[in-house]
Amino acid sequence: MESHKLFAYTELLLKDPQKLSPAFSTLCALFDGLTFDEENVVMAELWVANIEDNTTDEEIKTFLCHYGFPPFDTIRRVEGTGERPAVVLEFNDIGAHVLQSLQPRVHNMFWKSRTLTVQVVPTRDES
Question: Three-class SS of residue 99?
Fold first, then answer.
């Protein structure tokens, strides 16, 4: 399936949250393993802070997909002082605007005995 069609389907699903549960798990599966033209790569990052220390990468992916996020491509753990561990999730081929539309769904959500702080990392020019 072409990437622009996936994004169009995603936008349609986001307009009607009642359809998210069954339909979005299928869409998450479609996003996994997609490859795109490297010349047109778009990348966005999501900062998720106050994660329970023993939370696995797979638990984070499942949690976010449940709330409509596409699967992340890489995860980087940020230890900090150890009181409020965080992760930076990289989404290849997803624009920051997509993450910004999804971010309010999980920001300040109570999960695994902690209140999460979720922010879209501002895009930076690496040229």
Answer: helix
- pTM, to two decimals: 0.66
**The CA-based dihedral angle spanning residues 73, 116, 66, 123, taken in that order and rounded to the nearest 10 degrees:** -40
What digits encode the pLDDT tens for the residues 24-66?
A: 555 556 555 555 444 455 789 999 999 988 899 999 999 999 9
- Residue 89 parent element (H or E): strand 86-92
Per-residue pLDDT tens digits for 96-125: 999 999 999 999 999 999 999 999 998 766
Q: Delineate the domains of the chain, giving CATH numbers in brackets.
A: 3-121 (3.30.70.330)
CA distances from 48 to 90, 101, 106, 120, 125 (A): 11, 15, 9, 9, 22
